[in-house]
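Quarterly update from the structural biology core.
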Amino acid sequence: MTKPLISIIAGARPNFMKVAPIIRELSNRRDRFDWELVHTGQHYDRDMSDVFFEELEIPKPNYYLDAGGGSHAEQTAKIMVRYEEVCLKSHPRLVLVVGDVNSTLACSIVAKKLQIEVAHVEAGLRSGDMHMPEEINRMVTDSITDYFFVTEPSGMDNLRKEGKPEASLFFVGHVMIDNLFHQLEKLKKSDLTQFGTQSLKASLGQYGIVTLHRPSNVDSPESLANILGVLGEISARLPLIFAVHPRTAQNMQKFGIEIPSTIHRTPPLPYMEFLNLWSESSVIFTDSGGIQEESTALGIPCVTLRENTERPVTVTEGTNVLVGSDKERIREETLAILGGKRRGQRRRPALWDGKAAIRIVDELQRLLG
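Predicted structure, tokenized:
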């Protein structure tokens, strides 16, 4: 009997981190599945070299679509046209998408138009903020998905409210946490002197981490200056390391905004090097999504520079707090953390145990068997 072919979609660095545990588990069951990896090229990243794929223990993609940049519409359209060619060539039984990027949306639409089943990993997350392109991607993808693999209880609640059939919902935990635990074990056996930031880390002792890239924070000179100003104040008490996103760097230059001298600036870092930094930090300041979850898994306080989150379990059970871009709220929450009043180490969410990929592949084996 022919083994079912699963087409796995990734378009940006976090996508590859999420598919890596699934690919490792699928590779353990070669007698049951065939699979192919499609890199849409949504985010061009020169750090996605052979070393990047070796770190994640996944082979180089079977297909590279080279979608590149452009507006949301242009990028989505290019991915759709090029992925349709892949589907017509390889005839997958199921298309597996992760997260909420344009590639997730584009490949889901192509699959459904060709009558191919879709599985969405990290399904059901909702921020309620329709100004976020990711929210639109999440909602549209879930509207045409066949199998929903869910990371937290809010995702199950959202999908039920949207009328999804119970038999298609699977609460499995989070593959991002699978990958985190896997890479931390590798990090313990690594030569840390290979990382250019290791000497900085050693010299600082205690420190905080900053990541900042969301348009609402970095596309406005007032908002960007406001956030960097209060982080400068905080860095006088706790040294901060700021891995500067290209978008943020470009806007700082355009607006004539300088990073305070007390904040240590680095370029975007390779995955393992950045993990080596943030996993031992005292606090994280971010407007990203995944690190809210990863910091919760390790019990590290996270100050999220947003008014909402599609990952509410990180606030209700984890170590995350939402502060927006308000200087007083940022200052107040940080002082509470540094004063030991809002320390981390709250309970880890259910099923965030490093075995989500096993549960996903178990269900795929049942569904496609």
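The chain has a mean pLDDT of 93.
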